[in-house]
Amino acid sequence: MDQGFDQWNVGGTEILNDTPPPATGNVCLGVWAQIGQLSYKLNHPSWTFDNAGNLNGTVIIREQVVIDPRGNSFAGAFTYYVYDLKGNLLDRVNGTITGQRITAD
Predict the structure, then answer these.
(1) How far is 98 from 100, CA to CA, in rounded Å?
(2) Distance between first and last Cα of the chain
(3) Cα separation of 88 and 51, whole Å?
C-alpha cells in the first residue's frame, strides 16, 4: 500500500510526495486533464532505483478518477507500467485509488 500527498494544480500539473524513502525518488511530477464533468485522467512518470540507489528504469502511472460533487474526495483506478532503461515493459500493476481533500481547518 502506498500513501502520499498529491496536489493537482490549476493548469494541469501535479506533484506527488509519497511514502517510499527519498533516495528512491518519492517526489515526482505529472500532468492531468479533465475527461468528463467530474472525471479526470493523470499521466505521471517516475524514476525507479535499485537498492544501491542506481537509476534502473521508469514507472508510468496512469489514473482515472471521479471527484465527488462537493470536491472533497475522489476514487478511481490506476495502472503502473514499469520499464527498464531501454524502454522494455517489465511489469504492469492495476489497482484502485482514493483520496481526501486536506483543508486548513
Answers:
(1) 7
(2) 27
(3) 20
Q: Quick check: pTM over 0.90? A: no
Strand partners, 91: 82
> Which grid coordinates belong to 89?
515493459
More confident residue, 76 or 103: 76
Mean pLDDT value of segment 35-45 = 96
What H or E segment, with its residue span, contains residue 67? strand 55-67
Tell me: the pLDDT tens digits for 51-60?
888 999 999 9
Instruction: Give the CA angle between residues 92, 80, 101 to the nearest 5°.
Output: 150
Instruction: Give the phi and the psi of residue 15 in degrees, each rounded to 5.
Output: -130, 130
Give Rg (Cα) of the chain. Answer: 15
